[in-house]
Design brief:
The structure holds two protein chains of two kinds. Chain A is an alpha+beta fold. Chain A has helices spanning 23-33, 41-48, 52-63, 87-125, and strands spanning 39-40, 68-75, 78-85. Chain A contains four helices and three strands, in the order H-E-H-H-E-E-H. Chain A is elongated. The two termini of chain A are 31 Å apart. Chain B has one domain. The chains are: A alpha+beta, B mainly alpha.
C-alpha cells in the first residue's frame, strides 16, 4: 500500500454530504448551479424528471439547511414558484464536488494500478 | 476481464470529466471577483504617468515610433503583470474551489483580444508602418472587444467600460491624426479613464458578491 494511502481517514470521504448525496437532490443542485437566476418549479421538475410531490419533498430537504431558496409569487394571477441556489448552497455543492472528484480519482488510480498486475497474473499462467 | 478494466477506467475518466464540466458551468455563472479595484486604478494612473512621460520626453512621436511603442508596450506589460499577479492571488482567496476554472474563464475571455492587439501591431509595423498613427485607436477598439467578451463574467455595468474604450478608440482614429498623431492624450485619456472607470464599477459592486463561491 503506498505511504500516502496509509494516513488515518484517507478514504473516509467525510465531505460527502448526506443532504446532497442523493440522486434527485444532486440533479436539483446541478440544475440550479447552472442557472444562477433560479429556475421555475415546472422547469426544474422537467429537467430532473421528478414528480411534483418528489421535487417538493427534496426541495424542502435542501431548503432546511439553507442550500436553496424558494420564492413564491403570483404571475398572471397564478402562483409561481422559483427555486435558486444560495451562496452557501453553491459553496457546499462545490465542496461536495471536490470530495466526489477525489473518490472517483482514487477509484481510477486503483483501477490503473490493478490492471497491469492482473495482466501479469494472467501472463504468468499462460503456456510458454 | 481486461476489457472490463478498460470499460471501468473509461467510465471513471468520463465521471471525472463530467465533474469538471459541472464545475466549469458553475464558474461561468458566477461573477468574477479576481480583478482588484485598487490595482486597476493603479493601472489607470500608470497610463496617465506614461502619457505625462511621453509629453515631457518624446517631442515628435510620429518620427520615433519605436520609442513610442517601447513606452506604451512597457506600460502595458507592467499593468498586465500587476493585474495578472493580483488576479491569481485574489481569485484563489475569493473563489476557493472554483479558482482554477474562474482564472481560465477570465483568461479565455480576455487574452484573445490582447493577443490580437499584439500580433496586429507587429503585422502593421512590418507591412504598413505609415499607418502607425492608427495604433492608439485600434488598440482601444481591440481592448473594447476584450472587455465586451468579459462582460458576462463581470458586473453588468462593465458593459459601459467596453463602450468607453470603443468610443475612445474610434474618437482617437477620427481626431488623433496629422499633427496630433500618436499624441499622449490618445492613449493616456483612453486607458487612464477606462481603467479608473473599471476600478470604480468593481469597487461599487464589491459588496454584492460577498459570499459567492
Amino acid at each position: 500500500m503506498p505511504r500516502r494511502d496509509r494516513s488515518p481517514g484517507r478514504f473516509a470521504y467525510e465531505g460527502l454530504d448526506r443532504v446532497i448525496h442523493e440522486r434527485a437532490r444532486l440533479s436539483v443542485l446541478t440544475s440550479l448551479a447552472a442557472h444562477p437566476k433560479g429556475l421555475a418549479f415546472g422547469d426544474l421538475k422537467r429537467l430532473c424528471r421528478l414528480t411534483d410531490g418528489n421535487l417538493s419533498r427534496h426541495l424542502r430537504i435542501l431548503e432546511e439547511p439553507g442550500l436553496v431558496e424558494i420564492t413564491k409569487t403570483f404571475r398572471d394571477n397564478r402562483p409561481h414558484t422559483t427555486c435558486r441556489l444560495t451562496a452557501a448552497g453553491r459553496r457546499r455543492f462545490l465542496e461536495y464536488l471536490a470530495v466526489l472528484e477525489t473518490v472517483v480519482a482514487d477509484a481510477a488510480t486503483a483501477a490503473r494500478d490493478e490492471a497491469p498486475a492482473r495482466r501479469g497474473l494472467v501472463k504468468g499462467f499462460a503456456p510458454a | 476481464m481486461m476489457q472490463s478494466d478498460g470499460l471501468m477506467l473509461r467510465d471513471l475518466d468520463q465521471a471525472l470529466a463530467e465533474i469538471s464540466a459541472i464545475r466549469s458551468q458553475i464558474a461561468r455563472s458566477v461573477v468574477f471577483r479576481g480583478y482588484g479595484p485598487a490595482t486597476l486604478a493603479t493601472t489607470g494612473l500608470l497610463a496617465f504617468v506614461a502619457a505625462g512621460a511621453q509629453a515631457a520626453f518624446l517631442d515628435d512621436p510620429a518620427r520615433h515610433v519605436s520609442t513610442y511603442l517601447a513606452l506604451w508596450a512597457g506600460t502595458a506589460l507592467v499593468c498586465a503583470g500587476l493585474v495578472g499577479l493580483e488576479m491569481i492571488t485574489r481569485t484563489r482567496r475569493v473563489h476557493g474551489p472554483l479558482a482554477q476554472e474562474m482564472l481560465w474563464t477570465a483568461v479565455e475571455q480576455f487574452v484573445p483580444a490582447a493577443a490580437a492587439g499584439g500580433f496586429f501591431t507587429l503585422v502593421l509595423l512590418a507591412s504598413a508602418p505609415e499607418a502607425a498613427w492608427m495604433l492608439p485607436g485600434l488598440w482601444q477598439v481591440i481592448f473594447s472587444l476584450g472587455v465586451f467578451a468579459s462582460c458576462r463574467f463581470l458586473p453588468p455595468a462593465i458593459f459601459w467600460v467596453g463602450g468607453w474604450y470603443l468610443a475612445a478608440g474610434l474618437g482617437s482614429i477620427a481626431l488623433a491624426r496629422g499633427e496630433l498623431a500618436l499624441s499622449p492624450a490618445a492613449m493616456g485619456v483612453g486607458f487612464g479613464v477606462g481603467q479608473l472607470l473599471t476600478a470604480l464599477i468593481l469597487h461599487f459592486h464589491r459588496e454584492e458578491g460577498e459570499g459567492d463561491a
